[in-house]
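Changelog-adjacent note: as of this version, every example in the card shows the full chain rather than a window. The one below runs 213 residues end to end.
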Amino acid sequence: MKLRTAEQLSDKLSNELAWRKKELSDIKSLIETKFSLAKHNALIRSGICLLYAHWEGFVKIAGNSYLEYVRVKKLCYKDLASNFLALAMKEKLDEAKETNKPSLYIPVCDFFLDELNQRCELPKDVISTASNLSSEIFKEITHVLGIDFSPYSTKSVLIDTKLLKARNEIAHGEYSVFDKEQYIELHLEIIAMLDIFRNQIENAAINKDYMRS
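Full-length structure tokens:
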């Protein structure tokens, strides 16, 4: 189903986040149950991998859903906010840059001079996490979407070290031991960031932040 309204976008984001929260809540409940130390370690290691999977998965799906919502609006290029105009023009600019032929910039200049009144053609599914959603990659995603990064500006260590680095160590077969209280704190922090990201996208759609002011 195409995301034609802000309500449809909101419903998709809510449904997408709900099942992720449920799964993470279930494993958190297990971790809080009294088991042997070995079982606790195994559960926490599994929990960290799931936390990262849902962090990366939701950011990617939510970002591309917002992009799809803007794309189906079929706005003119001149009506797009600069971040979306840059995204629409990226392919043309990349092509000109890669060939190193100055003549290929002429069509790009012609576009800005003569074609801004045409309906835009935004690419699909271009929000990429590169399978390693670090704070820098996430910051780039927020810039592309026109989302404020400041709520996450103090979370770099949490994202890069406590989540991503820990997940990579586990995924690469290293035996890393994690504290239960640290895991629960990480769980709460990731859930909070996902909620913030969802709210930001919903508000951006409602406030039409994708349009040139």
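Structural remarks: The chain has a mean pLDDT of 91.
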